[in-house]
């Protein structure tokens, strides 16, 4: 990780010797407002990964036109235990990992991390959910900091004393909805009629499942899904009601009829018009990139591939909607929560902002024949640089 003219401004390495908790907070740039970005809890999270994600948040918030800067948090969590939403769906034992990852220990890790960085919230940093964290972890975070404005993505029941500014948990599906909007806008611009378009979604978590829900509702045909263990494929389109029942019951894809199952590595070879990687960082690699035949890739996850691979796709004529354009629904929801909006007003804001940014980026990209990432980066940088110049002039 190296500093440049944009940041990072603050890097915190947290350690609690009593618990064995290690974590990182990177506040990249606060020219537009306090750094905003979620906290992930994974076994192998690194300072470099957190920095890359924080920088992505700088551009994401800028392009979305909201008064937040970029930041990200990460806690080394020695378990594959899922977030609190999975606990609610599958029971307490779903939270227990091979390495003692109990709900109590997870709470202790989160609150230790919160106390370490609490002095930076909410003026410099506002937390939110991310991989393996959800509304309950955000409740735990604000309990530790003592400030309900130190995090967003909190439970809907957690409100200010006057009953306003209630939580808007990411479990409402704002990110997946935003990815769906970006996909719809891109398809309407590129192919006009989205009905019958085939889509493959890599992932079966919050973002992927809500993307599935909305896209199939609009007539898109999802032909493949993948979770961490396996994939399913049906060229005629997966059974919408059956998949939705699995989501509702918190079941994995292994419970889908066996005739649709394919090896996880075969997912990338599935013929589809659109690919939505909505799982983990760097999921598209040199090893699987040649298997992909989609003409449109919408990055539902953060940093799903290197810029080198993304450029290779662009050179071959594949349109890639960058992560900080497509998956900004979560942070737009965070802004809506910060302003005290209702869920209905939040979803309208997500649709309006992502529709506008996706259309603006794609139209300019097609007009000047440059990749969507290059165009989006220019637009995002312009806004941040203008804010930095204004701060320097007035500060």
Automatic annotation (TrEMBL):
InterPro entries the record matches: Aminoacid_DH-like_N_sf (IPR046346), Glu/Leu/Phe/Val/Trp_DH (IPR006095), Glu/Leu/Phe/Val/Trp_DH_C (IPR006096), Glu/Leu/Phe/Val/Trp_DH_dimer (IPR006097), Glu_DH (IPR014362), NAD(P)-bd_dom_sf (IPR036291)
Residue sites binding NAD(+) per the record: 175, 206
Gene3D superfamilies in alphabetical order: Leucine Dehydrogenase, chain A, domain 1 (3.40.50.10860), NAD(P)-binding Rossmann-like Domain (3.40.50.720)
Site features described as Important for catalysis, chain residue numbers: 130
Superkingdom, natural source: Bacteria
Glutamate/phenylalanine/leucine/valine/L-tryptophan dehydrogenase C-terminal domain: residues covered: 167-392
Pfam families: ELFV_dehydrog, ELFV_dehydrog_N
Annotated active site: 72
Keyword Magnesium among UniProt keywords: no
Binding site for substrate: 36, 60, 334
Molecular function via GO: glutamate dehydrogenase (NAD+) activity; nucleotide binding
Secretion signal, residue range per the UniProt entry: none
Keyword field: NAD, Nucleotide-binding, Oxidoreductase
Similarity annotation: Belongs to the Glu/Leu/Phe/Val dehydrogenases family.
Protein name per UniProt: Glutamate dehydrogenase
Organism name: Candidatus Liptonbacteria bacterium GWB1_49_6
């Amino acid at each position: 990780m190296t500093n440049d003219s944009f940041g990072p401004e603050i890097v915190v390495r947290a350690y609690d010797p009593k618990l064995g908790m290690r974590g990182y907070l990177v506040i990249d740039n606060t020219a537009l407002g306090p750094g905003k970005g979620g906290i992930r809890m994974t076994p192998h999270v690194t300072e470099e990964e957190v920095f890359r994600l924080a920088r992505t948040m700088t551009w994401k918030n800028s392009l979305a036109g909201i008064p937040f800067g970029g930041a990200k948090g990460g806690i080394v969590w020695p378990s594959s235990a899922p977030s609190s939403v999975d606990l609610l769906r599958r029971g307490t034992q779903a939270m227990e990992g091979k390495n003692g990852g109990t709900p109590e220990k997870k709470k202790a890790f989160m609150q230790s991390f919160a106390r370490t960085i609490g002095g930076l919230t909410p003026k410099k940093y506002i937390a939110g959910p991310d991989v393996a964290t959800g509304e309950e972890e955000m409740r735990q975070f604000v309990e530790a900091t003592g400030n309900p404005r130190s995090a967003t993505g909190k439970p809907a029941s957690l409100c200010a004393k006057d009953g306003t500014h209630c939580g808007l948990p990411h479990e409402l599906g704002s990110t997946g909805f935003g990815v769906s909007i970006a996909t719809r806008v891109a398809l309407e611009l590129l192919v006009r009629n989205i009905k019958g378009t085939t889509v493959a979604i890599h992932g079966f978590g919050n973002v992927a499942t809500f993307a599935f829900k909305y896209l199939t509702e609009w007539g898109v045909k999802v032909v493949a899904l993948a979770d961490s263990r396996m994939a399913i494929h049906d060229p005629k389109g997966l059974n919408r009601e059956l998949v939705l029942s699995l989501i509702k019951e918190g079941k994995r894809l292994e419970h889908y009829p066996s005739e649709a199952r394919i090896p996880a590595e075969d997912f990338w070879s599935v013929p589809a018009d659109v690919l939505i990687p909505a799982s983990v960082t760097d999921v598209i690699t040199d090893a699987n990139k040649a298997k992909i035949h989609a003409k449109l890739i919408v990055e539902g996850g953060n940093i799903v591939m290197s810029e080198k691979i993304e450029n290779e796709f662009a050179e071959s004529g594949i349109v890639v909607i960058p992560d900080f354009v497509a998956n900004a629904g979560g942070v737009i929801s965070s802004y809506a929560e910060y302003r005290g909006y209702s869920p209905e007003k939040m979803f309208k804001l997500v649709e309006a902002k992502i529709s506008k940014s996706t259309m603006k980026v794609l139209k300019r990209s097609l007009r000047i024949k440059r990749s969507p990432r290059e165009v989006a980066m220019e637009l995002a940088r312009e806004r941040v640089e203008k804010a930095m110049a204004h701060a320097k002039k007035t500060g």
